[in-house]
Each structure stands twice: as C-alpha cells, then as structure tokens.
Amino acid sequence: DDFWMGDPIYRQPGKLKSVLNARKIDGVALLAIREKDRLPDPILEVLPDCVTVGLGVRMVLPLIHCCSNNQYGTSLNAVRHVRESGKKRIGLVVAAGIDRLLNGKLSMGFRFGLEEAGEKPEVAASRIWLFEAHDMSGFLRWHESFKPEVLLTTHAEIADWLRRGPAGGKQTALAHLDVDSSMSGWGGMNQRNELVGAFGVDLLTAHMSRGEKGVPPSAKSMLVESQWVEGRSLRPTEFLT
Prior knowledge:
Elements: H1 15-22, E1 27-31, H2 41-46, E2 51-55, E3 65-69, H3 71-84, E4 90-94, H4 96-101, H5 105-116, H6 121-126, E5 128-130, H7 136-146, E6 150-153, H8 157-164, E7 173-176, E8 188-190, H9 193-209, E9 221-224, E10 227-229, H10 236-239
Helix pairs in contact: 3-5
C-alpha cells in the first residue's frame, strides 16, 4: 500500500495510525523523506507499532534503519574513474540543498578524491560550483575561469548550458552522478536505486519476522554501491554539438 504524507488527511492526529491498524500493516518503508533531521509527526505516531526503514536518505531523529546509495563512494569513485582515464581537471556541479540533504557526502567524496591525487584542500573546494537553476551566466563564468576537462554533476541542465555557451565549453566531458535508463546519452554513476528498494525490503522483512517494532536500540545502515556506465556525454564532441 502507498501512502502520501502530503495528503491533508494525514495532518489529522492519529489518522495514519488508524489506517495502518485497520489494514493490519506493521512494516513501513519511508521513501523521499526530505526532513532528514526529524521524521514527520504522522510517522512518529506509528513508530512504536511498526518496523520502519528509510530509503535513500539517512534519517536521524529518531535514528531508524536505513538503506541508501553510498553517495560518498559514488562521488569518490567517479573522481577515481575519471582520473584513471587520464583527465586531471575535474569539477563538480551540485545544488547546495541536495548536498546538505546528503550530509555533504557528494562534495566530501569529490574533495577527498582530488586531495588523495595531490590537490590542496582549498583547490579541491574551488572546483565545486553550487548549482542555481537560473544562474547559467554564473556557471559559465566559473567554467571559463577553471576550464575543466570533466564535470561531475547531478544536474542534466548543465549540458544545455554548455551547448549555449562559448565554444570552449563544448570540449567538456560530463558524467552524471545519478544516471538512469531514461537519460539518453548520459554516462556516469548508476546509483542502482532499484537495489536500494529491494535491499530495503529485505531489511524491513527481516526485522518484521523477528517482531522488532519501534525505534531500534541500534539502527542499521545498508549502503548500495554505484556502477560506472559509459555514455556519449563522456565524449563531448558527440554530445554537445
């Protein structure tokens, strides 16, 4: 059963709890929760009576079991893969809100990848541009000053900005950090989100079988590793022209 917490009906105290009880549901997977520091009140009400697992984002108030992609490793291994191909000038484009939701895992993995290759911390930090949806000119100024060979990003819009910008930008390879099959031409890291869901269900059903309801005394975090995939975006003369 699917329940959308944005439905006004669940703002009524006890409503979600009564619905779950009526349907004899005692296992809950939480998907796409953006309030990572505190679970929504309707979920807090049902915690004592359910086994609960978060999917995709680590939730900390209270700490519950979680299955997510290893976002730190996704970014770090993308840097390593690109450097192994011989590219050295690597940048990251990510929105501050996305990185904050992930506790800085994307930016920190990226920075560590550059630092382990010999870059100074302040240089590694300067190679990150915080994405703003309406600031193409700011991006192009940063790009022109840095002149990256490869950009890692969570924003497909960057490709169009480079196409519309100066000719030099069309030489920049692009690798997306969350590639899926709907993204034509893109290469980069496939976060295997289908496995996050499947392994999250495994985690949920294991605790349900033992009747371990409520806030766990020691929460588990299960991480799914990303897989590098090739794509035309890594060949800019094909992808950006």
